[in-house]
Each structure stands twice: as structure tokens, then as C-alpha cells.
Amino acid sequence: METQPQIIARIREDMPNISRSWREERRETSGDESSERMVALMEELTGVFAGFLESPRGVESFSRGGEIRSLVARIAAGQQDLGRDAVGVIEDFSVLRRCVWNSVEEGVDFAGMAGGDVAAFFVKLIQASDWVTEHGLEAFEATARREMERALGRAAATDLVTGLPDRDQFNRLLLPAAIGKHETFSVLVFDVVNFTEMVAAGKLGRAREILSRLAEAIKDGASEDAVCARFGDDEVCAILPGSSAEDAYQLAEQVSARLREGPDGFELDAGVAEYPEHGSDAGQLMSETLKALKMAKRVGGGGIVVAH
């Protein structure tokens, strides 16, 4: 399936205008480094489109020795820098296709061409656009996943008492990472009973000891791949991969029984929720977990409640 040379020539000659149209439609007009880099990458991709239209090869065999995949990966990194989401990635490529089509439609006399030649151009343009969109989304998701993993690696434990990540890291990094990695897991939040009164009474040493013992007990009872964080002044939260709400409930009972024992024992309330049964995203899941914890605190006496 060959494309008429006047169409290819039009795309190459009009590349600056195609880039300008794309820039205006995608509102990348701020002139900052990330925007300028993305415009340049889209212009490079337009050149690849022209090369593909000129080639007799199909979309799967036109690889240029991996050069195209490398370009798609660089575009994905640029889209990540610009804060794109998956919809934004799709729009980047669909707008470029539209700009290329508009340029050709404006600069080439389709009336003087055979209908089959026009159709051949349109089919190859659609094929190329679909291919780059599909692989662009894959590269974008891989880039986003690597960035999250790097962020998790950089996430130092900010809580000096427990040595755990804090609530912000839990909400922003740890829980979304768990949703992306595991098909199912449970979330367990412990609350230390009368912790606020203890701090108000000046028993800070006792309060620190309790939180440290709670964090240690959770780690001892949970699997190696469990993730813990200090969720609030008197709360410690755990993500338990592969576990059900019932599994988390049993762990909560185990930890509570261990820490209730002896003269230095203390009471815990706990709330449990399971992904995806009780929430399909991080916000909904934590909302249900905290609702369960609130109910447990109302019950009192070391209550453990599973979200409904």
C-alpha cells in the first residue's frame, strides 16, 4: 500500500505548521523547557509518520531498528514530566493525527487523485496513529510505574518514633503502588486507646514506647511483603498483600492480644477493609477502612470492625 509522493512531500514541507497547530491545540505555548521538548518530539514523530507513509512496509515491520520505540519512550517520559494522564496521552497522538490530516487536506488536491490513493493514505495514517497510541500508552504506564518505584525507594521513614513512612507517603505512594501491583490485599489500621490523654498527661516516653511496640508487633505478625506506616498520632496502618479481610481481622486479634498482656499492656481498636471488595481506588478504600475504625472506637474495649 503506497502513498502518493505529493502527500509525503506536503507533510515534510509543512512540518513547522503541523507542529504549531499541535502546540496550540494542546496548549503547550508556555515556552518552558518541558513543553518545548514535547513539541520537538512531536515534530520528530511527524517525520516518522512521513517515513512510514513512504515505505511499503506495514506498521508492525516499520521499526527503523528500534528507533521508533525509543522515540515513543522519550515521548512517554516527556508526557510524564508534563503531568499527563492516560487520556492526555491519547489526546496528544490523536491531535497530531488530526493536524497531519488537516495539513494534507489543505495542501494536496485530492480531487485530482484516485480515490484508492486517498484511501491508502488515510488507512496508513490511522494504522500509524493507532500503533503509536497503543505503544505510547504502554510506555507511559511503564514510565509512571518506574517513577513510582523510584519515589518509593527515595521515601525515607519520616517518623522518628516508629521508623515507618508517614501518612502522606502512605496515601500518595504506598497505597497506589499496592493497587497497581496486587489483585487483592487488605488494609488494617490500629488506633491506640487513650493515646491522646496519655500525651496530654505528659507521658511522652510511654507514648513512644507504645507506638514502637505496636509497629514491631505488626511486622512480626504480618508477612514479609506487608507494608506499614504511621497513619496518625495514635494510628499505625498496614497493607497486607494477598490477604482477605478475615486474614487481617485475625492479625488484628493476634496483635491486640499480644499487646494487651502484662502490666505494661494497652488496648487497641482496629478497622479493616479489603481491596477491591470495599474500595476500587485508594481514596474509597481508606475511607471505608477509617469508617470501620470509627465504628470500632465507638464499640470500645479493643474493638475490631471490618468494613461492610
Explain how this protein is built.
This protein is α+β, with helices and mostly antiparallel strands and 308 residues long. It is built from eleven helices and five strands, in the order αααααααβααββαβαβ. It has helices spanning 5-13, 15-25, 33-54, 67-81, 86-107, 115-154, 167-181, 195-200, 204-221, 245-260, 282-299, and strands at 185-192, 227-232, 235-241, 268-275, 304-306. α2 crosses α5 and α9 (204-221) crosses α10 (245-260). The longest helix is centred in the middle third of the chain and has 40 residues, at 115-154. It is elongated. The model has no long low-confidence stretch (mean pLDDT 87).
Features:
308 residues, alpha+beta, 5-stranded mixed sheet, 11 helices
